[in-house]
Amino acid sequence: MRVRVDEMNSVSCHGKAGVSDTFAAAIWALSSLFSLAELGAGGVNFHIFQPGKSSGYYDPIVSIWNGHTYRTDVRPLYYALLLFRTVLGSRLVPVQPTSPDAGINSYAAVGHDRVRVFVLNRDLHRSQRVSIRLICSCGPTELTFLRASSLDAMNGVILGSNRSLP
User: Fold this and answer.
1) pLDDT higher for 166 or 83?
2) What is residue 67's three-state secondary structure?
3) Parallel, antiparallel, or unpaired: how do β-strands 91-93 and 104-111 relate?
4) What are the domain boundaries of the chain?
5) pLDDT score of 50 more than 70
6) What is the pTM for the complete model shown?
7) Hey, what long-range contacts does 71-77 have (CB within 8 A, 24 or more apart)?
8) What pairing do the DSSP bridges indicate for beta strands 91-93 and 4-8?
């Protein structure tokens, strides 16, 4: 029987402003999802707030009523969940970064006629050049970027710029 994780999110009790609503929470979510997938988890339910009970800082999408209109914001966590969705139905394969670093996690998923490579940089102070060696020859490889100006960014997240790798 495979385990399913229920009510997971970055900070308990509806999240914390400046933490759960930042790009850091998106990187944490991706890292956690990949770790759970590697362990064979059968699924994960991300917890969201209940209207009227809290501000729901960890909600991926928030709509706020100002008395006349709704304003809807997409938070960084949404982009992480959307990116991880591309892994569903795939098989994780081992990767070896040629420059191992404590601030880097690397993952690869084979499925849908391609290999998707994920490199998570959690370093607050620098970008890094990373080489990845796949331990399989599994087909064309694609790298998709999830970027923000900083780990504490609450908006301006970019998901895209797919790039095929040689």
Assistant:
1) 83
2) coil
3) antiparallel
4) 4-165
5) no
6) 0.84
7) 73/155, 75/21, 75/25, 75/154, 76/21, 76/22, 76/23, 76/25, 76/26, 76/148, 76/153, 76/154, 76/155, 76/157, 77/10, 77/20, 77/21, 77/25, 77/26, 77/29, 77/46
8) unpaired
